[in-house]
Specification:
The protein is α/β, with parallel strands linked by helices. It folds into two domains: 229 residues, Hexokinase, domain 1 (3-Layer(aba) Sandwich); 169 residues, ATPase, nucleotide binding domain (Nucleotidyltransferase, domain 5, 2-Layer Sandwich), CATH 3.30.420. It is built from 15 helices and 13 strands. The strands form three sheets. It has a six-stranded mixed beta sheet with strand order 1-11-10-9-12-13. A five-stranded mixed beta sheet has the order 4-3-2-5-8, sandwiched between helices. The protein has a two-stranded antiparallel sheet with strand order 6-7. The longest helix has 22 residues. The radius of gyration is 25 Å and the shape is globular. Its EC number is 2.7.1.-. Pathway: Carbohydrate degradation; glycolysis; D-glyceraldehyde 3-phosphate and glycerone phosphate from D-glucose: step 1/4; Carbohydrate metabolism; hexose metabolism. One of its GO terms (biological process) is intracellular glucose homeostasis. Belongs to the hexokinase family.
Amino acid sequence: MFHLGPKRPPSRKGSMADVPRNLMDELAKYQELLTVSPQKLKKITDHFISELEKGLSVKGGNIPMIPTWIVDYPTGEETGEYLAIDLGGTNLRVVLVKLLGNCKFDTEQSKYHLPSDIRTTRDKDILFSYIADSVAKFINDLYPNGVPKGKILPLGFTFSYPCTQSRIDTGVLQRWTKGFDIPGVEGYDVVPMLVSQFEKRKVPVKLVALINDTSGTLVASRYTDPATEMGLIFGTGCNGAYYDRIHNIPKLAGKLQDDITQDSPMLINCEYGSFDNEHLALPRTKYDIIIDAQSPRPNQQAFEKMIAGYYLGEVLRLILVELYEKNLILEKYKSDNEGIKLLNEPYILDTEVLTRIEDDPFENLEDTCTLFKEKLHLEFTSPERKLIRKLAELIGTRAARLSICGIAAVTKKMNYLKCHCAADGSVFNHYTNFPARAVDGLADIFDWKLQGLKPEDYPIQIVPSEDGSGVGAAVAAALTHRRIEKGLSVGLKGA
């Protein structure tokens, strides 16, 4: 008979009985510092709405509110074969999307690893040649006997870097992100750079739409679910997209062709990670101020730096350094400053660390002990680990609650009383407690708990997205292709 060994006692996860009073006193201070009340969330949302409006105005504001030139809603009845390419930070993905109508689709895809040096190559043609070669290989694999004569595959390009667009098939790169730094691209339209490489290889494609992943998340999810009104990214960065109406976008007045009316929809890529760059609404702490000051672009992306996955582990690291300097933790390393060398390394802790700490099932947080030995070569005591878990919970909860101010602002602005908001991104998908905390924050803004509603009955639901960077690019291509065939505009007047 197989012996299971002694039965493990039930976990008392969260018990702080053995944590010294001085650490509990410090924890109380951090709890007050990092907790965002329902009242504060409501004030942030009100300011957010005004900033969204400002971004749509002629003068503009911190939030770019970029028109994407997607001026139709997907119906779910779009059909056809479309190629989509998604340029990520480490991989290039090429997808054949078969839109089947009736809100259904099929996909075939391949991933191509980007050589590490391609992101910083001095020759831009190397990047775009690599993309063209990968697409050509994908098509050759799809059609081993050759593409049928005369067949041209419409292509949607997910290029999730800040771009200015005068048409849906253009994209002037404002700045590289995600580790890319290739000269001769910023300030130029990336589409001709890629198209020229397709033409050299006689690849049978026509690039009809360039979008970012947030816009793709919206149209892909809307294709399968007509209740979808927002696309959201909660990952290394953050962003939101929604459909506004032309009459709500003063900065487009007089710049549109006649087939786009005042009542026409326009998908807006908010790029609202830059919300509150003026520091008027968000409850910044000294840790947020340090992160901003030491970032490559101080006083930019204020909202993103408080909620996005890239920064959450750094907040925890800064607090741990502060506790060490106060002689409250890691006492045995005081005579050996070399021992905490890794703790002093910025961004050595990422959001995955917070997730693993919170998911640790053991009462004494043995998994957390192992984690810090691996990451920092440090051994925290059991009480110290319990303090760290509480700090991780506070940091993660603050980020989730602040993150939904963008959702609340858009839904209030557009008077969406009931809808789905489709979310994607590493934080949403992999940070175990993030979705529930986000929903809880949304409920606090709209007072749903006071109304006695249960989470499953909340009128605004955050739902997992469809494949925005693949299916979304294909749906955008389908919508654009349809307009082009009808002779309708897909950009600014004269563009």
